[in-house]
Write a structure and sequence with these properties.
The chain is α/β, with parallel strands linked by helices. It has three domains: 83 residues, Arc Repressor Mutant, subunit A (Orthogonal Bundle); 117 residues, D-Maltodextrin-Binding Protein, domain 2, CATH 3.40.190; 102 residues, D-Maltodextrin-Binding Protein, domain 2. Helix content is 40%, strand content 24%. Strands 3, 4, 5, 6, 7, 10, 11 and 12 form an eight-stranded mixed beta sheet that branches. It has a two-stranded antiparallel sheet with strand order 1-2. Strand 3, helix 5 and strand 4 form a beta-alpha-beta unit. The chain is globular, with a radius of gyration of 23 Å. It starts with a helix and ends in a 17-residue tail after the last helix. This is LysR family transcriptional regulator. GO terms for molecular function: DNA binding; DNA-binding transcription factor activity. Belongs to the LysR transcriptional regulatory family.
Length: 309
């Protein structure tokens, strides 16, 4: 048994599927399966019960997993510490970002982090809210940028800025003259929406459910830019975060605030281990605050790390 096999085992255990684990590890499925079989042979135990759909961990696998995590964490810490002797502590920072969260954050954040921490290898993934939280919990992400509060127990968040859910319509839409659109009015509109796996869609459905209504879905796309490009050619509407207008402005689209009630959105950094990630949280919060600060030099609704919950 070696650390590579332990890392492979942890990936299979957390994913419950060889294909997904292989994709996560960037290796082939046959190679991963062979490593797991060798680990079982070396330990003389069965770690998984194979079924047609997923792998079910045995009691031995649960025991090994609980011991493997601190071992792998200790090895990573040892590598980082030894890297200091070479004058460069290379470390990977994996960040998951929602597609609907201010898209200009990603390129600007990447450049700012690179300049502030030149020996930090930054990996940024565009994910759904559920996937961000799942990967934070299984350790394959360090930080998420998502809506607050986190939905999964064990995750903590610090607010970056406030946004609000906004109705987006074509320029020739019947509601084009309205300055604001009430939730009850918006509930009647045929919609082009993001898929149900997106958190913005879930927030919209929850708001309508409070009114005893369901969304009038006429079409779905899994890409925000695709929705905004398609809307001018339809009579449909959509709902998106208001900040998206800054990077997805379109002369044939109108952005109307929702009211009665207004739907606030809180966007922030999310992590699992506050103490371990505190320096990274502070770095990202500072860099993003500089990027998104308004005329007064402060982001709306920004908080310090004492806002962690």
């Amino acid at each position: 048994m070696d650390f590579k096999q332990l890392r492979y085992f942890v990936a299979v255990y957390e994913e419950g599927h060889v294909g997904r684990a292989a994709e996560r590890l960037s290796i082939s499925q046959p190679a991963l399966s062979q490593q797991i079989r060798q680990l079982e042979q070396n330990l003389d135990v069965s770690l998984f019960e194979r079924s047609s759909k997923r792998l079910l961990p045995t009691l031995a696998a649960h025991t090994l997993y609980n011991h493997a995590l601190p071992l792998l964490d200790g090895m990573q810490r040892a590598r980082e510490a030894l890297g200091n002797f070479k004058g460069q502590a290379l470390r990977t920072l994996a960040i998951g970002v929602l597609q609907t969260v201010h898209s200009s954050l990603v390129p600007q954040m990447l450049e700012r982090v690179r300049k502030a921490q030149p020996h930090l290898v930054v990996q940024i993934y565009e994910l759904t809210g559920l996937e961000v939280e799942r990967r934070l919990l299984n350790g394959s992400l360090d930080i998420g940028i998502s809506y607050l509060p986190p939905r999964q127990p064990g995750l903590h968040g610090v607010q970056l800025y406030e946004d609000e859910l906004t109705l987006v319509i074509p320029a020739e839409h019947p509601l084009r003259e309205f300055k604001k659109v009430s939730m009850s009015q918006a509930a009647e509109l045929p919609m082009l929406l993001l898929g149900e796996e997106f958190q913005i869609r879930q927030i919209w459905q929850a708001q309508l459910a409070n009114l005893g209504r369901r969304p009038q879905v006429q079409a779905e796309l899994n890409n925000m830019a695709g929705i905004l490009d398609s809307l001018p050619n339809t009579r449909l509407a959509t709902v998106l975060p208001g900040h998206s207008r800054q990077t997805h402005s379109h002369p044939e689209l109108l952005w109307k605030p929702l009211s009665e009630p207004r739907v606030p959105l809180k966007v922030g950094l999310v992590c699992r281990d506050v103490q371990r990630q505190q320096a990274t949280l502070e770095l990202l919060r500072t860099l993003l605050e500089e990027e998104m600060s308004g005329p007064d030099g402060r982001m709306p609704g920004a908080m310090t790390l004492e806002g962690l919950s």
